[in-house]
Amino acid sequence: MAGGCVRDTLMGRRPADYDIATSAPPDEVRRLFGRTVPTGLRHGTVTVLYAGHACEVTTYRIDGSYDNCRRPHQVTFTGDILLDLARRDFTVNAMAMDLGGGIIDPFGGRGDIDRRLIRCVGEPRERFSEDALRMLRALRFAAKLGFAIDPPTLGAMRACAPLAAKLSAERVAAELSGILASPRPDTVWQAVDMGLMARFLRPGAGPRHALAPLPHYARLPRLCADLEAGGYIMSTESFLRGLRLPARAISSGSTAAEILLSGSRDYKRLLHSYGRDAVLAAYPKSRELRRILRSGECWSREQLKISGAELRAAGFEGAGIRDALEALLRHVMERPEDNEHEILCKLAKELKPNDRA
Q1: For the purposes of burial, counting CB atoms within 10 Å of the CB of 9, is it exposed (0-12), middle (13-18) or buried (19 or more)?
Q2: Which range of residues forms the domain containing residue 250?
Q3: Cα 260 to Cα 242: distance, rounded to the nearest angstrom
Q4: What are phi and psi of 180, to 5 degrees?
Q5: How confident is the model over 170-197, as pLDDT tens digits?
Q6: Whole-structure pTM value
Q7: Is 341 inside a domain boundary?
Q8: Domain boundary residue, one of 261, 295, 329
């Protein structure tokens, strides 16, 4: 086993997945196992399907020069695990474990776990020049594990930050999501301040609300609202589109950010205009909002105890049905106790043009 699964095992955490490093070339790995997927043969990786699990198996390798600060242009397979570990990003990820539980740790990763430290393998600027994504990964690991970043590593991140402009939007978005989902989501502001997000942001300044107390689904809208209020972005929608997020995430995030920027706490009107999920994402900690949702108080036409069909039967036509429902909804939003069928029928009669005449 190699990499993060070893780190997590030593920390008493359950690994999300297991990566295997081997001296066997990819073709030999494919011969040894009946079901495999050639995930990345060029880089020595074969996915082995076994007992209902998928496991990436990668041949020990030495990376050559890197293309565009992201991936090695070529790799050389080797039989030496130490050379393979030397190409990895951080010491806590540059360990291996054999079948007997023995640890191979040439760069002091175990000690850095004890010190709760993220430190580059080798010279930090060289590591970040090879792969600029490692700078965002450093922040994600620090946020996820609750570690500090080694000062020389942190200094190299600041110096190499402009290289992050070459990263794909999808990769940046994935690391940003990982930081926001961590126990220390406010680490995202370090990425902003260092310039690691400069491709997507303008210089700005403004409020920074704490993200850690919020549930995961509310953190991105709150961050985007602060970025927009501080002038870092023109709009949340354009920012999220730039990160190539899925359409649903763009829509929900921008809607919740719009609610936050409005400053409105008129929860029933917000619920009517934007829907339950968006308002909850904007105000997840609001007791009043939770009370309204629990109480069953009316904020949508669907909750009215009178239907469009009943209004049509009572003589309303076309747009008049919609207008009557909206008028009745406005009434019961102010007076929840009037959301009763008999009362609504009486109010509807008063709304009919002919009756008023």
Answers
A1: middle
A2: 200-295
A3: 21
A4: -65, -25
A5: 999 999 999 999 999 999 999 999 999 9
A6: 0.85
A7: yes
A8: 295
